[in-house]
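In response to the reviewer comment on reproducibility (Comment 2.3), we provide here a single inverse folding case reported in full, input and output, so that an independent group could reproduce the run without further information from us. The structure tokens appear first.
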């Protein structure tokens, strides 16, 4: 006869966040990390940086401690080159800790492959300055980025590289890009919680999240409210005035335990071409 073993479950004491199964990356993305908490998720090389996973009120995030006075960086190499003509936007959600001033704590560098238009160097630096403002999309201007405040930033890499080339014939293949940190006296820690390379969204591109929890799933809590659904069509979500270019969201169980924050960038040019489709929808599984 089968043996029955009763295992009591103390659901009232549950403090674990829901489990969200991986889903395919949306078709408009080249590299899509809506939630980052470890170095290995995001980067392939570094120098004079110590990475740790830090717990915050919004869940775990990647903390990068700058240990050198110069040449501190993290880098991401791609197995297949990134074509900015197809995927124009680089998105990053970050904040500085222990910063001594407002502004950007880092400089971006894009490393070109063999295919490149005239005028493009091996490495193209992008600094957050008034001159590059036309390529930056952020709810807060870079010179107003304050310590301890999260910034959701989009950079139009395609248009920046077009402007840097001499013949305006296109963009180079990008084999890797790096985030080079300014002097340690500017910011001792930079925290990163999402990264993406993508094109604008349309209504055909969705994210169906399958979430599980012993206390059952309540739904999504986001910066515009709550929904019982776990499917999202980013182009059709009516975003808030405070964050017109991103959606910040967490999956919650019925005890109020939530996943770490997910940040979904919404580049300019994203189109609601199917108005009948809801921004959030039910996922059956």
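Designed residues, in position order:
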């Amino acid at each position: 006869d089968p043996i029955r073993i009763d295992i009591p479950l103390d659901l009232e004491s549950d403090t674990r966040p829901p489990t969200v199964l991986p889903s395919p990356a949306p078709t408009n993305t080249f590299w899509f990390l809506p939630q980052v908490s470890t170095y290995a998720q995001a980067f392939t090389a570094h120098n004079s940086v110590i990475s740790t996973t830090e717990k915050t009120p919004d869940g775990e995030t990647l903390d990068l401690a700058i240990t050198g006075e110069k040449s501190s960086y993290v880098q991401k190499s791609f197995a297949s080159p990134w074509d900015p003509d197809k995927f124009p936007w680089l998105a990053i959600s970050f904040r500085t800790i222990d910063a001594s001033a407002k502004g950007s704590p880092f400089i971006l560098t894009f490393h070109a492959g063999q295919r490149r238009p005239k005028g493009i160097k091996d490495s193209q630096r992008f600094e957050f300055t008034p001159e590059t403002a036309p390529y930056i999309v952020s709810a807060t201007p870079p010179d107003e980025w304050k310590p301890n405040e999260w910034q959701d930033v989009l950079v139009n890499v395609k248009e920046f590289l077009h402007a840097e080339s001499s013949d305006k014939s296109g963009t180079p293949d990008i084999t890797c890009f790096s985030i080079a940190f300014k002097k340690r006296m500017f910011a001792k820690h930079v925290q990163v919680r999402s990264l993406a390379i993508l094109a604008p969204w349309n209504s055909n591109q969705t994210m169906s999240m399958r979430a599980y929890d012993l206390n059952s799933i309540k739904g999504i809590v986001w910066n515009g409210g709550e929904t019982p659904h776990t499917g999202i069509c980013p182009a059709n979500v009516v975003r808030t005035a405070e964050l017109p270019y991103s959606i910040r969201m967490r999956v919650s169980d019925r005890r109020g335990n939530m996943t770490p924050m997910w940040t979904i960038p919404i580049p300019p040019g994203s189109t609601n071409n199917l108005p009948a489709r809801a921004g959030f929808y039910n996922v059956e599984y």
